[in-house]
Amino acid sequence: MEFMDVFEKWAERYDDTVFNTSKENEYKDVFEDYPKMLDQIAQLSTGEVLEIGAGTGNLTQHLIRQGLDVTAIDPSEDMRAIANQKEGIHVIEGHFLKIPVEKKFDTIVSSFAFHHLDHQGKQEALNYMKQFLKPNGHIVFIDTLFESEMNKNQIIQFYTDKMYVNLVEDLQTEYYPFKDELEKIVESANGTSELEQQNRFAWLIHMKFGH
C-alpha cells in the first residue's frame, strides 16, 4: 500500500492521462496504444475473471464488452468512486495481497498496477494469486518494465533531456522490474511466462502456473 497517496492524486486525472495523446502529456509514450492493450487482455481472458487494480474501470469496460463475468477490485476509494459511476461497473475494495472473495477464477488480469509492488511483494502476490486460479487458469497483465539496466538508464536520460520531471521521478522511484527479474519471479512461483513488448514501456505478460 506504499503508493496509496499516488493513487489518490491520480484518480481525477487518470482517464485524461491514459487517453491523452498530445505532446504535452508526459505519460503519452507510457500509454501509447492504451485501448489496444486493454483489448488484448480482454481477448486473452476466459470465463470468470478477477481484475486486480481496476482503477477507474477502463479495463473492466473492455472485459464486460467481451461478455466476461468480471469481479473487479481496487484499493483506492477515489478510483473506485470514479469507476463505479461508469455503466455496468462495480469495483470493490481489495488489492494484490488482499482478494476479498472466496472463489476461483479462469483468468486474473491487471493493467499498469503490478509495478507498485516491490520485488518481494510481487513474489508474494503471485504465490497468493495463483491460489485463486482454477486448474487451467492463467494470469494476464499489461505492465511497465525495463529490458535491462542499460535500457533503463537510456530511457531515464531520454526523458530527463525532455524535462519530463514527473515521469522521470516515477521511473526512478517505482518498482519497474527488469524483464529477466520478472521472468525469474514467475519461475520461482512455479510458473511460466510469455512477454511481448507493446510500446517503449508496456509489456503484455501472460503467466501460467503449476498447481
Automatic annotation (TrEMBL):
It is an enzyme of class 2 (transferase). Its EC number is 2.1.-.-. InterPro entries: Methyltransf_25 (IPR041698), SAM-dependent_MTases_sf (IPR029063). The keyword Cell cycle does not apply. GO terms for molecular function: methyltransferase activity. Residues 49-137 form the Methyltransferase domain. One of its GO terms (biological process) is methylation. It comes from the Bacteria. Coiled coil: none annotated. Keywords: Methyltransferase, Transferase. This is Class I SAM-dependent methyltransferase. It comes from Staphylococcus coagulans.
